User: What shape does this take?
Amino acid sequence: MGLLQKLFGGNSGPVRTTPELLRGMIEKDFKLREKELENFVAKKMAEIKHLNGKSVKLLVDIQKKEIGEERGGARFNKAAVTAKKQVERQLMQLLEKLGPKERGKTLSDARAYSGEGFALMINEINAFRKNIVYTSVFIKEEMKELGNILQEMLDSFHEMNQKFGECKSVFEFEKFCAMVEKIGEERKIIKEKEEEKKALKKKMEEQNEALKNQETRIEVSLNSQGMRELKVIEGEKNELLAKKQDLRSEVSSLINSIDRPLQRFKSLVGSGRWRIPKEEEEIMDAFIVNPLLAMKKDPKAEKFKKVLKEIKKAIEGGEIVLKDKEKEKRLAALEELLAFDFFENVFWKINEAQKRQIEIEKEIEKNPAQKAVENEKERLKEIEKEINGIRERISGIEKEIEKTNQGISQQLKALEEFGSTAMKRQVILVE
Assistant: This one.
């Protein structure tokens, strides 16, 4: 039976084609429908234009007519005169709104015009029908004729609306064609983006290779003669820093050994119960806060030792009260501090370490190896940044392609549905 169906042209299997070829298959039929619709619309637009002009002319004649004979009394007559003036103005405004003029040059505009015109006539004429009735009592024939003309115009709008409803597939075909064009453009965009993605991937491979080379360059720079020398110098620098820290800890430990009597003596001086020179008070405060910084003002700790002697007097004189064991311990610590050579044991060593540290800093600054490594590392960061930028751009392109493909997929479904209806056979769109 399948063979006979094919032989007699009865094959109703799906049509597999592309959007462009599908448009070619159904275009001729829709062009004929479009031409037929254009002819119909042109005829109706001409009728409306003629009827509109005829209505305006008749309305002008009505405006010239006077209401003379009274029918129903003076009040009725007066109401009719007012109604006539109002309906003349209302109808003239309506006819001006309905005037075709520049309307209907495209089918889309003609469709909009027919819908607007029909709604406008129904709504506005109903709105002032009372004035029409009053006026028609006195100017019967002309108003009747005007009503017939307006009815013809309304009928023309109605017929146009009906025709547009019957021929809506013509407008859908326009959308169909626009969608086909859009899909074509979007596929070109996808192709361009795929090419861009390909180029970016190639560039990323090059940058990854550059990254490896840069890492090798950094490795070489780190193992250079200059860097080996720099490591030795930095090792010495670290030893100096450690030495300075040890000296700082030694002095702090000595000061901490008399912390309680020192703090109590500070309170005594602060309250005025024990008086010492101002400069000694200041040096005492400085040693409490930062001994090494205080020694810049008092390298041999001569002033500070004067303070220590005063503390010793205060303990021995009972102004600073301590338990016997602690008193003995703190006095021994004071004696140790008084005997301690701050200049030789701390200040001089710190000073020498500081001088050598400054020399080392200058040597490090002069050594080009460190700068070379920093430059190589900076270039490495730049390459990594470029690679990340390329990776982000590739990710962005992939998302754009995915989004565009989803849109194309939805549009293809709409094209398949329209094509299947137009051809009365299932349409399957392929690449």
User: Anything to note?
Assistant: Residues 24 and 145 are 50 Å apart (CA to CA). The chain is about 85% helix and 0% strand. Residues 1-8 have pLDDT under 50 and may be disordered. The beta strands are 15-17, 427-429.
